[in-house]
Write a structure and sequence with these properties.
Number of helices: 11
Number of strands: 0
Order of helices and strands: HHHHHHHHHHH
Number of domains: 1
Structural class: mainly alpha
Largest sheet: none
Distance between the termini: 25 Å
């Protein structure tokens, strides 16, 4: 990959971290059609170098080996490029900023126009999502160890410091353990990247960067931290990657603290503002395609 592409990837890591949710008996049935609150078209965004940013759109199929050689940063950009071209708005600031500097990007006010997706688009999005979600805890730990030791393969294209930090943030979120700058206060960390953030009261500002899928994950993280087992296969798979997660056969909802309950209420409030809590069926479709980008 050339240096211009590296610059494009690396510019935006400081703008956001990523994250996820839990099952809770609040509301029933399918939530209303989601409305994604993307920043206004004239929202201020970070300065970028002169010239166009790299465009990751690909019209030929990806191979699994090709995708496995990529960093998490590049995988997210390549997958979300597919949906950005169909007008997908993004809550994650780093993705929103990146795509707003693409001349072809014209975000819609709600969700992407799926009629603009080709069969190859869908195939590639599914292939990327499968590689991302298929990384085991051991593989993620190995990636993190190599990255911190300065032994990341050249195929990850993390030559610049900010790209390195972006990758650390994404690996932290995937593993559920903070590996970023220890001086960053809890109030400025994403609960996706550091579950310990959930020990204190969340603010809506801390959730502003999270998608509906992410909010579902964060909500359920509160329960998972107490050892709750999940019927949801998606939640089972997600928490199986987390280094801290262990099922407690004696788990009961009364294990939740007052802070836990307050945080659940805050998360649900934000979810309702976006159209309601995401169902298992909706998340299954989301995982296959958007995979937490929007």
């Amino acid at each position: 990959m050339n240096r211009r592409l590296v610059v494009g990837i690396s510019l935006f890591w400081t703008l956001a971290c990523s994250g996820e949710s839990t099952e809770v008996a609040t509301g029933s049935g399918e939530p209303a059609t989601p409305v994604t609150s993307a920043p206004a078209p004239d929202a201020p965004i970070a300065a970028v170098p002169e010239g166009p940013l790299p465009d990751f759109y690909q019209i030929t199929p990806y191979s699994t080996d090709e995708l496995k050689s990529m960093s998490l940063t590049e995988l997210q950009l390549r997958r979300n490029t597919i949906f950005a071209r169909a007008g997908q708005p993004f809550r994650k600031k780093w993705l929103d900023t990146y795509f707003r500097y693409q001349e072809w990007y014209h975000p819609l006010t709600t969700v992407a126009d799926d009629t603009k997706l080709t069969a190859m688009d869908r195939q590639n999005a599914a292939a990327i999502a499968a590689v991302e979600s298929g990384l085991t805890r051991e593989e993620l730990r190995e990636r993190k160890t190599k990255l911190i030791a300065g032994e990341a393969p050249e195929s990850w294209h993390l030559e610049m410091d900010d790209a390195y930090q972006r990758e650390i943030a994404l690996l932290s979120a995937a593993l559920g353990e903070w590996e970023g700058d220890p001086s960053v206060p809890m109030s400025e960390r994403s609960p996706m990247a550091d579950p310990n953030v959930l020990d204190t009261a969340l603010t809506e500002a801390q959730l502003a960067d999270l998608s509906r899928r992410d909010l579902r994950i964060v909500r359920n993280t509160i329960f998972a931290r107490h050892g709750r087992a999940f019927k949801s296969e998606l939640l089972q798979e997600y928490f199986a990657q987390k280094v801290w997660y262990t099922v407690d056969p004696a788990y009961v909802d009364t294990s939740l603290t007052d802070v836990d309950k307050a945080n659940i209420a805050t998360i649900v409030k934000v979810e309702e503002s976006l159209g309601g809590m995401m169902t298992e069926k909706q998340q299954a479709a989301f995982e296959t395609e958007y995979m937490g980008g929007a």
